[in-house]
Automatic annotation (TrEMBL):
Highest taxon of the lineage: Eukaryota
Keyword Signal: yes
Biological classification of the source: Eukaryota, Metazoa, Chordata, Craniata, Vertebrata
Keyword set, alphabetical order: Signal
Biological source species: Nicator chloris
Positions of the ELMO domain: 133-308
GO (cellular component) term, any one: membrane
Entry GO MF terms: GTPase activator activity
Database matches in Pfam families: ELMO_CED12 (PF04727)
Signal peptide: 1-27
Gene name tied to this protein: Elmod2
Regions crossing the membrane: none
Name the record gives this protein: ELMD2 protein
Length: 319
């Protein structure tokens, strides 16, 4: 009860005066203090994101609305939006430090949303064995993981050797659709040695598990962390600068050039990180059998959520 009253007073009243006093003392507005501070990366962008979404809609001032619009801005409009915010807040345009920092933060916020949309779009595409490109990716996965062994036919018990359930992987992607396949392929492509090593460990006689199935399952874990915002700090720290050319990665997919925003790869690598760490975790915990997967998955999930709470978090395979 009191917490509610205090919360109400704080957000509607004290906060305003507090900011006003601070502004008098420092001659700067809240946003300037946020962006002028030494903290880079996630902490800064997360504060900008919250600053824009904090106030109740009914009490939104015009200035607040400018900032609120700013955190929903599209990448192409970021520059104009930065100018608007600075004008509204009476910040001199020549304050380039503020300008650059706000620019980066808004790009990160819009980048995260775009990443989620890309990932969601890929997830919604079901695996289709009539589609040549889907089939090619599946075969590529086999070739990356099993270079010394040729797949004797498209429908084959051999698929079980890389951890699918039956003789046709198409049914194993379920709720993750093409996202599950793309994650497995990209991880094997960029971290070939690690992927093969984990695959061979997954064949352990006692502690073994199904590599592909678990990989698809961990794709769902990464997806849910992205969806509920838990990956923000990690990704803001990873993609901390202005996007430059190298933040775009082009690859040729048969007839068309597909442009992947680098953040998409960071998501794929995050799933790779989960696969890598889950394997370590699984062998450390020594579960009695795969029947206990649920329990250990949840335990692992909690561990990862804990790590992601740190503002300075960067989770990569190299660690
Ligand atoms: C992953 O595993 C959990 C626990 O067994 C299960 O509830 C979930 O449906 C699985 N997800 C996928 C995509 O297989």
């Amino acid at each position: 009860m009191w917490a509610h009253v205090w919360g109400f007073l704080y957000s509607n009243y004290f906060r305003f005066w507090l900011k006003w006093i601070l502004r008098l003392l420092t001659g700067k507005c809240e946003l300037q203090r946020l962006l002028g501070g030494a903290e880079a990366g996630a902490r800064r962008t997360l504060s900008v994101g919250n600053g824009g979404a904090g106030a109740g809609a009914a009490r939104l001032s015009r200035k607040r609305r400018v900032l609120r619009n700013a955190v929903h801005v599209e990448e192409a409009e970021v520059e104009k939006c930065v100018r608007d915010v600075m004008k509204e807040k009476n910040i001199e345009q020549k304050d380039t430090g503020f300008k650059t920092n706000l620019h980066i933060s808004l790009l990160q916020i819009s980048g995260y949303k775009k990443l989620y949309l890309n990932v969601e779009n890929l997830r919604k595409v079901p695996y289709d064995s009539e589609n040549e490109e889907h089939e090619e990716q599946l075969i590529e996965l086999w070739n990356l993981l099993m270079p010394q062994e040729t797949l004797r036919s498209r429908i084959s018990k051999q698929w079980c050797d890389i951890g699918f359930q039956g003789d046709d992987p198409k049914t194993d992607f379920r709720g993750m659709g093409l996202l599950g396949l793309v994650n497995l392929v990209y991880f094997s492509k960029h971290y070939t040695n690690e992927a093969r090593q984990i695959l061979s460990r997954s064949n352990h006689p006692k502690l073994g598990y199904s590599y592909a199935i678990v990989g698809i399952n961990l794709t769902e874990m990464a997806y849910s962390l992205l969806k509920n915002g838990a990956l923000k700090a990690h990704l803001y720290n990873m993609v901390s600068g202005l996007p430059q050319l190298e933040h775009f990665h082009q690859f040729y997919c048969k007839h068309e050039v597909v442009e992947v925003v680098f953040a998409d790869l960071y998501f794929i690598f995050f799933t790779g990180y989960l696969v890598y760490e889950f394997d370590k975790f699984w062998f450390e915990e020594e579960p009695e059998s795969i029947m206990h997967f649920n329990h250990y998955r949840e335990k692992f999930h909690e561990k990862i959520k804990g790590l992601l709470l740190d503002y300075n978090v960067v989770l990569t395979l190299q660690d």
